[in-house]
UniProtKB/TrEMBL annotation:
Entry-linked Gene3D superfamilies: 3.40.50.12470, 3.40.50.970, Multifunctional 2-oxoglutarate metabolism enzyme, C-terminal domain (3.40.50.11610), TPP helical domain (1.10.287.1150)
One Pfam family named in its UniProt record: 2-oxogl_dehyd_N
SUPFAM superfamilies named among the record's database cross-references: Thiamin diphosphate-binding fold (THDP-binding)
Name recorded for this polypeptide: 2-oxoglutarate dehydrogenase, mitochondrial
Cofactor: Mg(2+); thiamine diphosphate
InterPro entries assigned to the protein according to its UniProt record, in alphabetical order: 2-oxogl_dehyd_N, 2oxoglutarate_DH_E1, DH_E1, KGD_C_sf, ODO-1/KGD_C, THDP-binding, Transketolase-like_Pyr-bd
Cellular compartments annotated: Mitochondrion
CDD domains to which the protein is assigned, alphabetical: TPP_E1_OGDC_like (cd02016)
Keywords noted in UniProt: Glycolysis, Magnesium, Metal-binding, Mitochondrion, Oxidoreductase, Thiamine pyrophosphate, Transit peptide
EC number: 1.2.4.2
Location of the Transketolase-like pyrimidine-binding domain: 646-859
Native species: Patella caerulea
Amino acid sequence: MSMMHRLQTVIAQVRPLAVRRHIGSPVRILGYNSHEHNRSYASQAAAESFLNGNSSTYVEEMYLSWQKEPTSVHKSWDVFFRQTAGGALPGQAYIRPPTLNYGSPGVQVSYPVHAVAQGAPVDEKTIEDHLSVQSIIRSYQTRGHNVAKLDPLEIADADLDSETPRELMLTNYNLEEEDLDRVFRLPATTYIGGQESQLQLREIIRRLEQVYCQHIGVEFMFINNLEQTDWIRKRFETPGIMQFNSEEKRLIMARLIRSTRIEEFLARKWSSEKRFGLEGCEVLIPAMKTIIDSCSAQGVDSFAIGMPHRGRLNVLGNVCRKPLEKIICQFDSKLEAADEGSGDVKYHLGMCHERLNRVTNKNIKIAVVANPSHLEAVDPIVQGKVRAEQFLRGDRDGKKVMSILLHGDAAFSGQGVVYETFHLSDLPAYTTHGTIHIVVNNQIGFTTDPRFSRSSPYCTDVARVVNAPIFHVNGDDPEAAIYVCKVASEWRQTFGKDVVIDLVSYRRNGHNEIDEPMFTQPLMYKKITKQPTVIAKYAEKLINEGVVTQQEYEEEVAKYDKICEEAYVLAKKETAVSNKDWLDSPWTGFFEGRDPMKLPSTGISEDTLRDIGVKFSTPPGGDFTIHGGLKRALKSRNEMVANRTVDWALGEALAFGSLLKEGIHVRLSGQDVERGTFSHRHHVLHDQNQDKRWAVPLNNLYPDQAKYTVCNSSLSEYGVLGFELGYSMANPNFLVIWEAQFGDFANTAQCIIDQFISSGQAKWIRQSGVVLLLPHGYEGMGPEHSSARLERFLQSSNDDSEYFPPEGPNFEIQQLHEINWFVCNFTTPANFFHAMRRQIALPFRKPLIVMTPKSLLRLPEARSSFDDMVEGSTFKRIIPEAGIAAENADTVKKVIFCTGKIYYELVKERQKKNLDSELAITRVEQISPFPFDLIKAEVLKYPNARLCWAQEEHKNMGAWQYVEPRLRTVLRKVNVDKEIEYAGRYAQAAAATGNKHMHLVELSQLLDQTMDIH
């Protein structure tokens, strides 16, 4: 019988015995029942409470302790475990000792009770006292952090509670002062004894307080994995384990000097500039460097860092070793950028730097990802970037590439994206195999007291949801902080899971250097003004220990001050700043050798189309059973291939498959993307008879193809879109796509869209080819299932509505160069096919926003021929009228411009009203950048026609407000004096009506208005 099977048997046997009061008073949950009246289970209800609480953990620890040393548990448990191991049936393994006989009938067995305390009489109190000591040990492990001395200012409690938990009071265990001198055997669930197996109670408590109640508070007993909790206990409880030699202490001091003096230097040179300095938490720099040293020694050579603005310049200079003169240049507002982009404030910038780690003598790469003032928004982006780099390097276990995320205390507890990011940490398609989180805990958020900014005891409590250990540490104890960082690094490399370091510190200045904190925190800042710096305290400690002399300390300070001054002189010689110096994801070699003005070809051979189409449409062989409905769908796809026709799903698959064939990794992520929200895609086929058995046809097209990753995400938009954006940043030759369940839901990721996707290149010279697929269309499904808010994306486009670009052969590619993103609303699968391939074929990268269809997914008219996808075919920015009206342009009375699904409704209505020769309908497939040249040609083609823009969205939404001034620019260009009519729904607050009848009424009015030619 396996150990786990035995253990399950033990727990199964404990339950009925406890309910029958056979366990009795010696049984005690360690750190679980704190009140005296709960010391014995005198009723069935109390027993059930025990069993419904921590019984499994308790018995598991007891059983493991017994396996190591049978005498470490009470004799009754010893007998019980022996009986169980021997195969006793439930209810037969427990033998009541004489001292536990409650008078009920039962077998009476006489045996000597093990003396748990030296010289103690063998009685029930001795047994209870022994179990109470075990409970005391567990209580310190569980609650010791609540009384740890974490606040450097000694005015606040990190858990916002000044009360000492009853579990940590000796009187809670019916023990008196005289019991402190008694000797007790230590259980196997603690390492405080070292080589000793028993200690005086006084020494037990002293050691527990030394471990759990000083400058480190360890939160880990909520972790439901015994191996992991035991691992942590060993690294904190083992006597003498937290020791540093003289060289290590000198290194800590040198790093603290750098951390402190760079802030003092910048403050001295630019006293009125915002820099969001690190004063009050200078220990962050040696802490981060220790993590990098430790992880580098264990094999990591690439680190991606995400952080808010506080301490960023210090991190760039002293952790990443960005040349100081490059940082100093950012303080000179007179220096203009020598390259593209609007740039950003210095404490938002990112970078990527490769250097030698002098501690491990290994080359490492460190990237700090650019981040706006939306503090935690960078978290999922860093994770996506790391995951992509792990994929590139085949680092399946994350042993070579890792992330470090820095947080503020108020943001960590207040920003929902923190939780969303944590929730990705163990998902198969999103895990980065452990992130080290560092909270720079100011104990305040801007001006808000933590008692008014969070409901949880600690700012780090959100991390408990993924069983991440949390190490709280006093920021003014550098050695404690460094030791915690070493343990956290080892944890990450050992278990591949997240870990949190809470650096409890303070802000020496206000929110920024020109802020006055005394307005709102007078008591705290009176204390801060008297608080010596951490380097002053630590240097004094080392001098007193004889580790360094006063002269050596001063020489180290002078050495770094000289470095700063030399960098200042070098910076003065700079004539311009280069935004490209601040790229956090440089794509080495990508732009070289490419013609930036060449518009790529995106068509492919018909043989390839047919080959991919057949393989994609063929069910898996063997005993793999697919759903009957899928059999019909695959058969239908095969028929389309045979007929040289594609619907939307097949067009998408042909785009992806052709890129995979060319060695391009494709990743599609989002809620329900494997099947598709509208049950159209079916890229993952599930065996109907066997769980966890599935097939991905697009991964089995060619033996040497690239990998296709299609993954359903957690129900998150903000976190997952951020992740995919980060993924797209790692390599320009990845096609990375995020699909919203409905386009309407993209608004919960608006921060990522506004701060990173639309403006990332302008602020940080950071290109990305990420694709957003946003299902959009008015089908009477209500205000939350109709609109992807096309207008918001168009409003954020950076083209000028009054500027008609110079016409010529490079018109289209020049527009693509200059726009910040492409916003499209396609009507054909072929155009979607070309757009996907164009994302990779272009000599640069821009985000692509697509209003994807819903009803068009199955509309027979919305299909394309192979002719529109073969070699020689290309992407179409507009699709002009190709019917009778185009052949008789002079007699056309009205030209309707539209985009997306409404086109097919307009065509149907035009046929119904027999207006084919009098109405021309032109589809604008790529709305931004606006196809001025092609629209101009359409206007000139129909000289006698009225011009109308038709849309299904409300007048204050959709494309109208973007298109209307650009149409006027076209009219001015051709010197035509015409009105531009609007046909669509009236302005409204909600995106759509929730009433199906009203939807149809509105649609009817829209169509009547559009078809009016009089």
